[in-house]
Amino acid sequence: MRHFLGYVCTACAGVFIGSLISRQPDLLATQSRLPQASGDPNGKPSFSASQLRVDGDFLKREGKEVVLELPPVLVCDPLEHVLVINLEGEGGLARREHIKREFEKAGLKGRFHFWPAVNFNTDEQLAKEMNRKKCPCDAKKGCGLSHRRLYEMMLYEKWPCATIFEDDVTLAANFSTRVAAMKDSIPPFDVILLGYCPGGYKPRRGPKDQSSVPTLKYGWPGSCVHAYTISLQGAKTLTEANTPVIVPPDGAMDGMHHWGNRTRIHIDRSGGVFTGSYWYVHPQLSWQGVEADNLEGGV
């Protein structure tokens, strides 16, 4: 009898393992369907068979309907898709040059694209979402629309994540190396803030610690979105939260302006309740310096 039971268990295990092996091609097929970044020898990503195109220094998206669906397997590399929101034309030139210098120092030359900021003086979609005949409109809501359009592009392209910067950011020493060092320890997340404004006040200089690998901490340390990594799930959540646009991008994240479960984020700061997956790095890896923040082209 004991031998018979051992035979049955062995047979069951064989069937189970065989079932797993038979399913493996489906998993591999699923992974193969995920978008893969390609690039040229200079490190610039290309976007074949997508709705993206490169126009000079800017990455642009052709207008197509966004479907809020997520692929089943996601692996995030924060430096695979790096974008900087910047006003096109002469109005954003000074900040564009600042970013090029700053990112070259950080080892990101040729590894990022500019993303067109919404012009709150002329944007027709912004006017429509604010129930106006035409702009000028609220500059901060224009900023919210700039970020949301980026999320919509992520959803169409099905990027696992992207790292987004505003064009007045200053990066800590060894930025790229330190971000890469924490890549394998990233938990499931909606947003990881790489810089923030404790109490709503902008830090004007970096932390003393400019060398250690940052620790990822859970929670919402303060507003500001000058540097953050957002997952595809986070992009979906924040697109839904800020359509039509009603708040600036950090307002859509921190829950101050949303009720009725419109977002999966914390709504009770005092009780320490966090219902969304919001993380931040310590020490900070970026800040908004006075010199860059005062350049022409900001909100």
Largest sheet: 7 strands, mixed
Total beta-strand segments: 13
**Order of strands across the main sheet:** 6-5-7-11-9-12-10
The fraction of residues assigned to DSSP E strands is: 15-25%
Organism: Effrenium voratum
Pfam family, one: Glyco_transf_25
Protein name: Glycosyl transferase family 25 domain-containing protein
Domain Glycosyl transferase family: 81-251
List keywords for this structure.
single chain; 299 residues; alpha/beta; Spore Coat Polysaccharide Biosynthesis Protein SpsA, Chain A; seven-stranded mixed beta sheet; two-stranded antiparallel sheet; 13 strands; globular; Glyco_trans_25; Glycosyl transferase family 25 domain-containing protein
Can you describe what's shown?
By secondary structure, the protein is of the alpha/beta class. It has a single domain, classed as Spore Coat Polysaccharide Biosynthesis Protein SpsA, Chain A. The chain contains 8 helices and 13 strands. The chain has helices at residues 2-32, 93-105, 124-129, 139-157, 175-181, 232-241, 249-254, 290-293, and strands at 38-39, 45-46, 52-55, 58-61, 82-86, 113-116, 161-166, 170-171, 191-193, 215-218, 227-231, 278-282, 286-287. Strand 3 and strand 4 form a beta hairpin. Residues 1-48 and 256-275 have low confidence and may be disordered.
